[in-house]
Amino acid sequence: MVMNVSALRLSQSASTFMLPCLLSPLDLPPRNMRNHTELNEFILLGMPQTQGLETVLLGIFLFIYPLTLLGNLLILLAIVSSSTLHTPMYFFLGLLSILDMLFPSVTCPKMLFYLSGQSRAISYKGCAVQLFFYHFLGSTEGCLYSVMAYDRFVAICHPLRYMLIMRPGVCVGLVLAAWLLSYLHATVLIAFVFQLPYCGPNRVDHFFCDIPAVLPLACADSSLARRVSSTNVGFLVLMFWLCVCVSYTRIGIAILRIRSAEGRQKAFSTCSAHLTAILCAFGPVIIVYLQPTPNPLLGATVQILNNTVSPMLNSLIYSLRNKEVKRSLKMVFYNVVFTALK
């Protein structure tokens, strides 16, 4: 009888010891999450140091966001409706208009929702989706700026071979490569940021879910995720910036070789709008993600400009400084008015 009891105890002890070994890794919570409760949602606090200004901010963004959508939609309609604009340059400009409608739509609707007095809560999955699409669309736009710089380089430095080099298959391939690179970039960031446990405070001191605001809420060491995100973003920005600098250095040399002042001015005006848009896009990224000690107020202000103001300015820059786009827009307005009166 004593031997049976001893054997039973030994068997129970062995089964208790062997049970964790028989479970798959998916059946066990990660070691740094076993003693914590996972968060189901985050609370967006909005722009730092703007408490009491919700009504003013709501009015500003209710003006900027619809204007951004309308301006870029008009450019897209002008490009689609005019056969003279069916060239590689305007193909890329049309894609940029689409991105400038999608990019602010990642953050603005939720921001307008809670600025109007509604809930500031965003689900865990919603936060991850917001962060993913912010970096996916943002890096796609950066890739597109580099492609557009290359397009201007070919147009000015190799005008006779332009249509051969920038043939439709090449344009589509460049765009697909930009989408793929951006998808991989955003996927890596999401993998490192959201594999960490989030179990303590859930108040995001920002107006949307972004890496510098979400990582401080992790219940584990986030140094690796910080290094990976900084390296990833820094590498992409450096790569895009080098492509732009090389293209525009070659363009500048080619413009200086043009003998007529009218030719130089025409070539410069063709590139000035694109170069202005590039500076508006890359400047905020460098300030926010590559600063050694993040400043919440500075970061939020710069990202507001990057998320909402820059896409609006792009539509104004490309429409006001481009005669072909203005001519096509007049035709669109004429057709709309004529159809309405008819």
Task: Tell me what the structure shows.
The protein has 342 residues and is mainly α. Helix content is 73%, strand content 3%. It is built from twelve helices and three strands; from the N terminus they run H-E-H-H-H-E-H-H-H-E-H-H-H-H-H. It has a three-stranded mixed β-sheet with strand order 2-1-3. Helix 7 packs antiparallel against helix 9. The N terminus is likely disordered.
Q: How far apart are the first and last residues' alpha carbons, in Å?
A: 103 Å
Please provide the count of β strands: 3
Report the helical percentage.
Answer: over 70%
Shape: globular
Radius of gyration (CA) equals 26 Å
Structural descriptors:
342 residues, mainly alpha, three-stranded mixed beta sheet, 3 strands, 73% helix, disordered N terminus
Q: What order do the helices and strands come in, and which of them pair?
A:
Layout: H1 2-22, E1 41-44, H2 54-81, H3 88-105, H4 108-115, E2 121-123, H5 124-157, H6 162-165, H7 168-193, E3 203-204, H8 211-214, H9 223-256, H10 261-289, H11 296-320, H12 323-341
Parallel strand pairs: 1-3
Antiparallel strand pairs: 1-2
Outline of the structure:
This protein has twelve helices and three strands. It is mainly alpha-helical and 342 residues long.
